[in-house]
Every structure is written in C-alpha cells, then in structure tokens.
Amino acid sequence: MPDSPFGERAQQWILRHSLEHLHGPEEVDYGVDEFVVLVQLYNGEPYVKPLLEHYFSMGAKHVFFLDNGSTDGCVEILKGYDNVSVFRTGRPYKTYNVAIKRHLIERFGRGRWTLSVDQDELFDYPFSDVVSLKALLRYLSENSYTAVVAYMLDMFPERLFEDDSHARDMSLEELKRTSRFYDISGVIRANYHDVGEIGNVLSNEEVSVLRGGVRERLFGVRPMLTKHPLVFFDDRLKPMDLSDHWAGNARVADFTGILMHYKLTNSLYGVVRQEIRDRRQLDLQKDRYGEYFKVLDRSPSLLLKNEASRELGSVNELVGTPFATVSRQYMGFVEGEERRLDPHAPGISSERMYEPFFNALAEAAAQRAAAREARQEAQEKQDRARVERENAREAGEKARRAEEQIRAIQSSRSWRVLTGLGRVKGRLRRGAPRDEPDSAPEGRN
Q: Could you say which of 14, 102, 210, 366 has the lowest number of CB atoms within 10 Å?
C-alpha cells in the first residue's frame, strides 16, 4: 500500500465516511454462481461504454464504480444505465488507491465472487467461447479456489496519434479492431513464489509472475503484469494484500485469465499530460508517467507495431504461452462443457490432442526448475567464494594492523628503554663483569 499518514483501518474509516452516492442501487443481491464488477473510475469517458458492453455480455449481475473526481463526461454516461451504481470520493488516489479497491470488495463481495478491474481492462479466459462465466464460477467453487490470476495483455494500434478525437464514443467492436495488436516477446517470467510468503496455495506450478512487455520496449518502464482480479471473499482471503495486484491467503486456480489492457490508445497523450500537471504540483515527476511523457512529448505520432507484434483473434491463441496457463483438470472441464452444449462434439481436449501439449509443458517446467537450481547453486558458490574472500581480506587486514602496531611499539621511546634493560639483565644472568667504578679523585691515597 502506498505510504500514508494513516493506518489501514483509519483509511477505511475515512474512505467510508467520504463516499457520496451518485447513481444506482447501493446494494445488490446476487448468488454464488454470479458476479459483480468493481471499477475505480477517473476520467474514463473513452472506456465506460466498451467496458459495460463487454461485462454485460459476459453475464455480470451489476457494475459498481467508485469515481475519484472525474471532470469529463463519464459519470453522466453511467447514469443512463440501470444495472450500474456510481459512488464518489474526494480522497487522493495516490494515498487511497488500495483502500478504495479493498473497500469495494469488502462492501459488495462478502461470500461471493467479484471481478476488480481498472477502467481500461477487459477480462477474458481460455475457451470462454465454450465455458460461460457462470459455469466457470461453479468450477472454481467446486474446487475450493478463491482467486484467479490474470495477466495484463497490453493491446495497441499500429500507431498512436496525439489527436484523440476518434477515441471518444468508441464501441467495444471498434476498440478491439483498432487496438488489435499485442507483443509478448519482451515479457519477463518469474517464479510465483518469489513475491514472498502471503499465504497463497498454488494449484498449478505453471502459474507465474510476469513483468515488462511492450511498455518496457516503448517507454523503458517495467510494469507488473500479474493481478488477482477474480476473487471469492471468504473468511480467509485478504483482498488487495501486498498491493492492488495481489490477494493473500488465497487458493489460486489452476488456470489463468487475461486482462486485455487498453492504456495504449490515442487518449494516452491527454492522460499523461494531465497526470504530469497534477504530479508537478506534488513534485512527483519521477515515476512511470514521467517516462511516458518524455517519449510522447517528442512524438506526436508514435509507431507501436514492430516485427514481434501479433493480431489477437482469440484468447485461445495464447494457450501455451505464459499468458494463458491451463491444467489437465481445466481442459477436462472445458471438454465436458463442450459436450454438454453439443453431445455430438468430438471434444477439443481429447487425450491424444492435449497429451503432447502437457508433456511439453512438463518438460519445459522441468528445464526451468533445473535452470533455477543451477543458478541457485552457482549463486551459492559465488556467495561462499565471496565470504571466503571477505574472511581472507579481514584476516589480512587484522595481520596488517597487528604489524603496524608492533612497528609503532618498537619505534617508541618506552620500547627502547625496555630493550636496553633487557640487554643488561641478560648480561647479568650470563655473569658478565660489572662496569668498573670511576677512578678516585686526584691527590687521594
């Protein structure tokens, strides 16, 4: 959670008492095989229509928006929908971002499924053309899963233009058609458990953490692409734990979803300039929006598409890449749904079709594990060698300091006196004659 002068509980209390109800019902009843969508909103006019079209087509029961002080026409657009509720808070986004998203889940999702997304994110999952979201929720509940990992897939047009007039009033079909490209060539994959111990149980070790991608290629930033947007808020799950991308104490499903992310549209120019104006006042330029601004400010027309870019026809195309993980159990469930819909269907995931696929996945996982083990062993050797070098340097330094101390003692006046006394005592022990006494004074017999 971002730094705050208040604790989490204080933030929640302040947020609850700052909310203003603008439109729609304040509470909605829905079943355990239904879901509602929770959206944090800020100047989302280019996105709200495609977003609602997408989620209502998936069967969303209701969509709750929490507006953070929009100045465009997005709230007025939302007031035209009956199955939408809008609340507003004036609390600052930077401080209250996680608290806002957590509040929505805790208020509307206890004992039920919620899908938390940003206004420019459209959720999907492998074989959604066969498996309805209602059936998917039943599958999750039957297997006691309480969270689904989804990866942000940055979608983009061939080129960005500073003029964003075409981004207004865009339909879902237009949005998907104009921003149909993706590029996952530069995505960095890491072990899921590297994030630290947050109490999550992973049912499929192929689920990983992804970072980077096209935004790193274009702007030099490395965004976290991993989220846990679909959650069942039971008495164990911690919503928005660690950050707004995570959930704690979750039983993570054996497949992953996709969040088609439409930040890279023509409206990005205006969004970045507005952010920079706000952040200059707060002296917070050194963040990812500052990096966006450096590139966009000198490029009124920015080419995004390159030789690694691909057109997205279906999320199913991503199965087998890190962005769409599936398990044998999940594919068996998909096959069952297909046959339930069409008893004569041959089955898209028959054993002979997916066995080589899972064998290849297992081999790749084994190779990654061997590589991690080799890296760890090499690192341990390096650590041991470093410790040995440090010990040797420390021993040498101690010897050097001891020698300097000896030389300092030997050059001191006290050491010379002691050395002289030592020589005298040595001669006495060997029986050396004493020094002759001085001669008697002259004139004395």
A: 366
Buried b (16+ CB within 10 A) or exposed e, 389-426: eeeeeeeeeeeeeeeeeeeeeeeeeeeeeeeeeeeeee
d(CA 35, CA 66): 17
pTM: 0.76
Taking alpha carbons only, the member of 192, 47, 63, 155 closest to residue 116 is 63
pLDDT tens track for 367-393: 655 666 677 777 778 888 888 888 888
Predicted local distance difference test score (pLDDT) of residue 364? 57
Q: Which residue has the tokens 């899963």?
A: 145
H, E, C per residue of 159-191? EEECCCHHHCCCCHHHHHHHCCEECCCCEEEEE
Do residues 100 and 89 make contact, with C-beta atoms less than 8 angstroms apart?
yes
Closest CA to 265 of 9, 19, 39, 44: 44
Helix/strand number for the chain, H first, E second = 12, 19
H helix or E strand, kind and range, residue 223? none
